[in-house]
Specification:
This protein has 206 residues and is of the alpha/beta class. It is built from seven helices and 14 strands.
């Protein structure tokens, strides 16, 4: 069973609908017991980092997610959900993340030297830097859909990303059984579905 975490800050139905095109064995949940029995977990996210991590901690879901990752269960963070995987964020203050991946989340506007719009919104080509299980069905140059104003930096888990102005934006990251997509696979057509398909395959062998 794939569990999509409902903590009040996610685009739940879009990603649930995409996963349901691949399997019926998916549930949206805020119940700890369900997460403890899941074979894979998807952590979505929309909104501000500080609010999201506070909700995860107040509900106790952060502890369960970390426990499941440590037990070897695959976790996929999407958009803000990917950012939450890192050590900290400087989005409107400084906030501690889940600490599952090395690195921090910073405002793109502070590092952009070319005149491009923030947020980084729309389709952009992926450049694969290092293969991982989620790159199995995609190719260099495939387009994915981004919507974000903050990005990961100082990381050692990069698999693929996209050029935006003078920045190379991390789009896909992983370490062991932890995966993240800054872009929205559920809004990225066939490419996104292929990434979700690869994640489901990882959960079957975990």
């Amino acid at each position: 069973m794939i569990a999509i975490v409902d903590y009040g800050a996610g685009n739940l139905h879009s990603i649930s609908g995409a996963v349901k095109t691949l399997t019926d064995d998916v549930i949206i949940t805020s119940e700890k017991d369900v997460l403890l029995s899941a074979s894979g977990i998807i952590l979505p996210g929309v909104g501000a980092f500080g609010d999201a991590i506070e909700k995860l901690r107040d509900t106790g879901l952060s502890e369960v997610i970390i426990e499941r990752v440590q037990s070897g269960i695959p976790l996929l963070g999407v958009c803000l959900g990917m950012q939450l995987l890192f050590e900290k964020s400087f989005e409107y203050g400084c906030h501690e993340g889940l600490g599952l991946l090395k690195g921090e989340i910073a405002p793109m506007a502070d590092d952009l030297t070319q005149k491009v719009k923030v947020p980084h919104m729309g389709w952009n080509a992926l450049e694969i830097q290092k293969e991982c299980p989620l790159t199995k069905y995609i190719q260099n140059g495939d387009y994915v859909y981004y919507v974000h104003s903050f990005y990961a930096k100082g990381l050692d888990s990069l698999n693929a990303g996209s050029e935006y102005g003078n920045l190379f934006v991390p789009g896909m990251v992983s370490r062991d059984n932890v995966f993240g997509c800054q872009f929205h696979p559920e809004k990225s057509g066939g490419v996104g579905l292929n990434i979700l398909r690869a994640f489901l395959e990882v959960t079957e062998h975990a």
